[in-house]
Amino acid sequence: MTGSKKVYADADAALEGLLHDGMLIAAGGFGLCGIPELLIDALVKSGVKDLTIASNNCGVDGFGLGKLLDTRQIRKMISSYVGENAEFMRQYLSGELELEFNPQGTLAERMRAGGCGIPGFYTKTGVGTVIAEGKEVKTFDGQDYILERGIVADLSIVKAWKADDTGNLVFRKTARNFNPPAAMCGKVCVAEVEEIVPRGSLDPDMIHLPGIYVHRIVQGQHEKRIEQRTVRKRETA
Amino acid sequence: MAWDRNQMAARAAQELEDGMYVNLGIGIPTLVANYVGDKDITLQSENGMLGMGPFPFEGEEDPDLINAGKQTITELNRTAYFDSATSFGMIRGGKIAAAILGAMEVAENGDLANWMIPGKLVKGMGGAMDLVAGVGRVIVVMDHTNKAGESKVLRKCTLPLTGKGVVDRIITNLGVLDVVPGGLRIVECAEGVTEEELRAATEATIVG
C-alpha cells in the first residue's frame, strides 16, 4: 500500500513543506474550467508570495487565481489570455504585476516539453511577430522556426475528476485542458480530485495521466463556476 | 448593398468540404456552423475537443464542457477530448484543414493582425498565433472597412501581427479576395457590390 502515502487529508496538508517565496508554479485549467480551486485557496491561506505562475489564464475577480491577485501573492504571470478581471489589469497597468504572453499552444508545449526532459523546441508559432523578438530563429526545409524553452516548475497544481490512491488520474470532458502538461512539468505535482477511488477500480486502459507524474492527492468539494453560461431554447410543441 | 453577418458566414461555409476538421473563431466565424448543411464537418475547440456540439438546453449546462470562448456547449456522438498540448499538436502539425477567423487588419502579403491595439487593453493572443501558423488554410471573415470607413484590407498591416504571410482567403461584407503573388485577386463581389466599389474600399494592391 505504498501508493496510499500520496493521499492527504486536505489541500493545506497536501501543500505542506512544498512552498517558498519566489517559486514557479504551473497551474492547470482553462478559464474557470478544470482549475485547482482548493489548492489555490490553500496557497492564499499559506501566504506564500512573489509567485511566478504559468497558467493559460488568471481566473476572474475573487475566484480561481484571481484570489491570489487580491492578496498580492503573484509577482509574474505566464499566460496566453488574461484580463477577465479588473484587479489583474489594475496591477498590470500600475507595474505591480509582470506579464509574459505566450501563445496558447507554445505555453502548453513548453510545459509538456519541460516534463519530458526537452529543454527547448522549435515552433513556427509567432514567427515574424513580437513573440519572436530576442529568440533564436532556425530554418528547416525553407521554413523559419523560433526556439522556445521547456518549463520546469517548482510545483504543479492540477485538478482531475478521479484518482486512485496511486495517483493515476482521469479527467472529465474539456476540464482536462492544461492539467496533464502542467502536471508533467512540475518537480512536484499536487492533484485535487472530486473522488479518490480504490486501486483497481479505474480501467488501466483509460488512465489519462499515469500516477508517476502525481506526488500528492487530495479529495474535496468543487464549486466549478461557469464563466459564460450559454444555452439554446427548447423547441416548444 | 453588401452581405450582412449571416450572409458572410454562409459564404464562408461554402469553403468547407465534406470530411474537414475545422476551427472557428469568435464572432462571425462562430455563425459559420449554422450554414454547413449536410456536409460532414468536425469542429475543433482548441481547449481540447473535436466534435463540438451546439449550446446546451437550459438546465443542462456542464461546467466541465466549454468551448475556447468559455461558453457552455455540448458533445456529439463523434466527440473526442484531449489535453491542450495534444490540441495544439494537431493545430501546429497541420491536421486541422482550415481556421475561419476574424481580423482587425489583413495585408496583401497575407499578414494578419487580430490580437492587439497598442495603447489599448491587451488581453492576449490565446491560440490565434498557433492556429494561423499551423492550420492548412486560413480564411478571414471581417468587415471590409472599420467604423471610420477606412479599409482593413491593406498594403501593410499597421498593428502588431498575429502571423506573417498566413492568410489564404479574405471574405468581407463586400466580397471575396485571395492572397496571391503580388497582391490580392478578386474572387467574387458580394451581391449588389460592383468590382469598382470593392476596389475603391481596398487599400491593398489588386492584381489580375
What does this structure look like?
The complex is a heterodimer of chains A (237) and B (208). With 237 residues, chain A is of the alpha/beta class. In chain A, 19% of the residues lie in helices and 25% in strands. In chain A, strands 1, 2, 3, 4, 5, 9, 10, 11 and 12 form a 9-stranded mixed sheet that branches. In chain A, strands 6-8-7 form a 3-stranded antiparallel sheet. The longest helix of chain A has 12 residues, at 104-115. The N and C termini of chain A lie far apart (58 Å). The mean pLDDT of chain A is 96. Chain B is an alpha/beta fold. Chain B contains 5 helices and 12 strands. In chain B, strands 4-3-2-1-5-8-10-11-12 form a 9-stranded mixed sheet. A 3-stranded mixed sheet of chain B has the order 7-6-9, with no helix packed on it. In chain B, a hairpin with a 3-residue loop joins β10 (169-171) and β11 (175-180). In chain B, α3 (84-92) runs parallel beside α4. The longest helix of chain B is centred in the first third of the chain and has 9 residues, at 5-13. The two termini of chain B are 24 Å apart. Classes of the chains: A alpha/beta (237), B alpha/beta (208). Chains A and B meet through α5 and α6 of A and α3 and α4 of B.
Topology:
The complex is a heterodimer of chains A (237) and B (208).
Chain A lengths: L6 E2 L2 H5 L8 E4 L9 H10 L4 E4 L11 H5 L3 E6 L6 H8 L4 E4 L2 H12 L4 E4 L13 E4 L2 E7 L5 E10 L4 E2 L8 H6 L4 E9 L18 E4 L18
Parallel strand pairs in A: 1-12, 2-3, 2-9, 3-4, 4-5, 9-11, 11-12
Antiparallel strand pairs in A: 6-8, 7-8, 9-10
Chain B lengths: L4 H9 L7 E4 L3 H4 L10 E4 L3 E4 L22 E7 L2 H9 L5 E4 L3 E3 L4 E2 L14 H7 L2 E5 L11 E2 L14 E3 L3 E6 L2 E7 L5 H6 L8
Parallel strand pairs in B: 1-2, 1-5, 5-8, 6-9, 8-10
Antiparallel strand pairs in B: 2-3, 3-4, 6-7, 10-11, 11-12
Helix pairs in contact in B: 3-4
